[in-house]
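Please go through the protein record below and see whether the fold suits the sequence. Record follows.
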Amino acid sequence: MTAVLWLRRDLRRRDHPALLAARDAAGDGDLVVAFVVDPRLWGGAGPVRRAWLAANLRALDESLGGALTLLHGDPRTVMPALAGRVSATSVHVSRETTPAGLRRDGTVRDALGSGVEWVETGTPYAVGPGLVTNGSGEPYKVFTPFARAWRRHGWPDPAPTPRELPLRHARNDADATAALDAALSASDLPALPAAGEEAALRRFRAFRDDHLAGYDDDRDRPALDATSRMSPYLKLGVVHPRTLLAELGERSGTGADSFRTELAWREFYADVLHHNPRSAWHDLRPTLQGMRYDEPEDAVEAWTKGETGYPVVDAGMRQLLAEGWMHNRVRMITASFLTKDLHVWWPVGARHFLDHLADGDVASNNHGWQWVAGTGTDASPYFRVFNPVTQGEKFDPDGEYVRRWVPELRHLPGKAAHQPWEHADGYAHGYPQRIVDHAAERQEALDRLAAVKGR
């Protein structure tokens, strides 16, 4: 008997129900653990995102004693071909929840035919999407009651870690290994976090012991290294959220409560997407139907490059390009600037983020954008327009974050870095002028909202 475990968002050994199911199905036979490098997804990812995936695949391969099988191509043809080549009796996966993932899995399942059992075990979430409902059995549309019900529902303890696995290597595809090698050797890559589940747990335990107590106060300060930085690991399933919840144990206090709440937001957005697949790329709520949006190519390009002339916006966009990550508070500020100051429909920004974020997750990313744009669940009202100057001064009061990512402003001390136009030498090192006037564009956004409401 040969069982195949097809990995996607679950690059780990610990707390892996699908791995345990595949091992049990293999019995005295073989277990083939495979990952498919899909050129369509690989080609659309930025260099940081590709390198991060490659590094974690290498770390997983090492933890499996070199037994990870790397394939290349469309999973809809590659996986049935692998199953046939190794005479698989079953193919095991963690249950997918995104619209694209569900479509892909349905095609692969059908292509395997009746001779190969398709087995879905576990999900990338502590509580699988669709399991938390209100008293009427309906999904929650607002976060706070969802979070309360999510906590009441609870989650199982982490699955045990198998000591021994009957692993069989099924030969790597040369194109897959070449893609990983090229990703890891790309020029101008930033220093990526340490890859692999051991590194993820070390990082989380250091955060838990050193920063969790102050997390509620410090998590909005982008200049501080005060967040867990677990999102890139969670994206690839290098660590499971259930594991992090177990690591927290019975810890209480505002910091622990806030961290659990952040995990609940991730689970909520997955639940929203599960019940509303169209919301991945369309407004969840039609409240702004008829809103007039612009397509200012030059301004959008300036936004993507971090050249808007608004320091905290530019710092965030440059951090995104350099690290494949951006502090959550700055994600909100940069999203507000694109949607409210430049009047661009949110999917434009959501797609740019997904192209570059190492932690880019459709549910969390796109519904987070809708929160800012005023079209999603728990949405910030459209008339709430983030002021990029006051936001910068409030959450980066010493200007340290701006100076870190915008070298043209390093000569300006303290919070002066947030308003270079107020200083005679503010533009002495080539920082760009503001591409729009925030006050004028804020009023324009409000006028467009009034036009929609008046129809």
